[in-house]
Automatic annotation (TrEMBL):
Keyword flag Hydrolase: yes
Alphabetical list of SMART domains matching this protein: Cutinase
InterPro entries named among the record's database cross-references: AB_hydrolase_fold, Cutinase/axe
Record keywords, A-Z: Hydrolase, Signal
Gene3D superfamilies: alpha/beta hydrolase
Organism: Corynebacterium comes
Signal peptide positions on this chain: 1-25
GO molecular function terms listed in the Swiss-Prot or TrEMBL record: hydrolase activity
Name of the protein described by the UniProt record: Cutinase family protein
Length: 285
């Protein structure tokens, strides 16, 4: 029995000292060369689908880029592949600002659905119906509070969001900023800090409320502001504003949503410039 106990103890000790496959430290997470830091437009909080933009990429977005930015990224990837036979976004991760840092709020009742095209009497009737349910000053107050609160959160919290992601992943990539509508306002404010860190690769904004102010800042080789003809948000005219009221936002809500059927020359130019920033950066990595 004593011999058996000694043998058993030796066996247990040997097993304890034997390396176990897989017990070593986990390898560091693979890091992308670039991150598209995306900020969606006002009230875009429903179509939050995590998305893979390249068959050659291991990364899936968190979905908070939402529909217009998602459509643009798919368009840029497919256009570049058709031209070169290579994936544009293979080494690019898409990271949307989620609702913990940027809620994208602007709670204004919609007068019309997208492309509904109400005439003037129908528009007036819709306005009257909305005002019967809630006074104009209450609507205005809620809209202002939602917009200001959401913008303040995004403006002040985005770099903390980036820092937390970098700490969690151990990655320190270059950043391409892509902002739509209200999201552009949030991301413009992050340019100085990312530039100071040497991580700003480029910035693309479309439907930007600050288009007139930002155009000069983002008009060089690393920046582009895209304002479609008839977009009341970035180029306010009476005709554009009336069209937006009648058909649920008008041109402003349609950025890149129809590129599969009929991309404009401007759509193609924006996608090509975006591709140049990515290929120029990844070729140096």
């Amino acid at each position: 029995m004593r011999r058996l106990s000694t043998s058993l103890a030796a066996t247990v000790l040997a097993l304890a000292l034997t390396p176990v496959p897989g017990a070593s430290a986990a390898p560091q997470q693979e890091c992308p060369a670039l991150v598209v830091l995306a900020a969606r437009g006002s009230e875009q909080n429903e179509d939050l689908r995590p998305t893979s933009y390249s068959d050659a990429s291991p990364w899936v977005s968190n979905g908070y880029e939402e529909r217009n930015i998602r459509a643009f990224l798919h368009f840029a990837e497919s256009r570049h592949y058709a031209k070169t036979g290579e994936s544009l976004l293979a080494d690019v991760q898409v990271l949307g600002l989620d609702d913990t840092v940027y809620p994208a709020t602007f709670p204004v009742p919609a007068l019309a659905e997208q492309d509904e095209n109400l005439d003037l009497p129908a528009t007036a009737a819709r306005v009257g119906g909305i005002l019967q349910q809630e006074p104009a000053h209450v609507i205005a107050q809620k809209a202002a509070e939602g917009l200001v609160g959401g913008l303040e959160s995004g403006l002040n919290g985005t770099m903390g969001y980036v820092d937390a992601w970098e700490s969690e992943t151990g990655c320190h990539p270059g950043y391409l900023l892509v902002g739509f509508s209200q999201g552009a306002v949030v991301l413009i404010a992050q340019e100085p800090e990312l530039t100071r860190r040497g991580q700003l690769v480029g910035s693309l904004y479309f439907g930007n409320p600050l288009h007139a102010l930002a155009a000069g800042r983002a008009s060089g080789s690393n920046g582009l502001n895209y304002c479609a003809d008839g977009d009341y948000v970035c180029n306010l005219t009476p005709g554009a504003a009336q069209a937006a009221l009648r058909n649920g936002g008008g041109v402003h809500n349609r950025y890149f949503m129809d590129v599969d059927e009929q991309p404009t020359e401007s759509d193609g130019h924006v996608a090509d410039r975006f591709a140049e920033w990515i290929t120029g950066y990844t070729s140096r990595s």
